[in-house]
Amino acid sequence: MIVVDTNIIGYLYLSSERSGQAEKALLKDAEWAAPVLWRSELQNVLTQYLRRNLLTFEDAVRIMDETTGLMSGREYEIASLDVLRLVSKSRCSAYDCEFVALARSLNVPLVTVDKQILSEFPMDAISLDEFVDGAVVVQID
Fold first, then answer.
1. The pTM of the whole model exceeds 0.90
2. Would you call 110 exposed, middle or buried from its count of C-beta atoms within 10 A (0-12, 13-18, 19+)?
3. Is 141 domain-assigned?
4. Phi, psi angles (nearest 5°) of residue 74
5. Does residue 138 lie within any of the structural domains?
6. Contact 50, 57 (CB under 8 A)
7. Residue pLDDT, tens place only, 87-107
8. Is 57 a domain residue?
9. 3-state secondary structure the chain
10. 122 in a domain, yes or no?
11. Structural contact between residues 109 and 130, judged by C-beta atoms closer than 8 angstroms
């Protein structure tokens, strides 16, 4: 199992230069987890695509349905205290700290492309590049 941030989920369903890497990450470890927050974040991304006419409403609904299916059973509520502890020791947003807190609570890595998370939480986070291309299997004890 790995925790993935919303960007990784989005890359899987929205065509980008990172879509291939997201697919490889899913093949490497198909058990993705995220805080429930991922839904709101992805809906915000889909909103931007809708408003720029890059997606139809039907496509946005389909993507939301498919991602919800992908994440089913592996969405977690995060304790505010855990998030605020991480916020108090970093420059990351509370949103980002939810993903870090979940990775810590599940004792698994957070896969992300967020440079600030990677910098502030190097023991908890691994870059998508490193996760996909690295020869080392990541396990946090």
1. yes
2. buried
3. no
4. -130, 35
5. no
6. yes
7. 999 999 999 999 999 999 999
8. yes
9. CEEECHHHHHHHHCCCCCHHHHHHHHHHCCCEEEECHHHHHHHHHHHHHHHCCCCCHHHHHHHHHHHHHHHCCCEECCCHHHHHHHHHCCCCCHHHHHHHHHHHHHCCCEEECCHHHHHHCCCCEEEHHHHHHCCCCCCCC
10. yes
11. no
Q: Give CA–CA dist 141/58, Å, rounded.
A: 43
Q: Which residues pair with 75 in a beta bridge?
A: 34
Q: Which residue has the tokens 């993935």?
A: 4
pLDDT digits (tens, 9 = 90+) for 61-87: 999 999 999 999 999 999 999 999 999
CATH number of domain containing 91: 3.40.50.1010
- The residue range of the domain holding 14 is 2-133
**Number of domains making up the chain:** 1
Per-residue CA distances from 10 to 20, 21, 23, 55, 128 (Å): 12, 12, 11, 13, 13
- Joined together, the tokens standing for residue 135 give 């020869």
Both tokens assigned to 97? 């700290």
CB 79 within 8 A of CB 101: yes
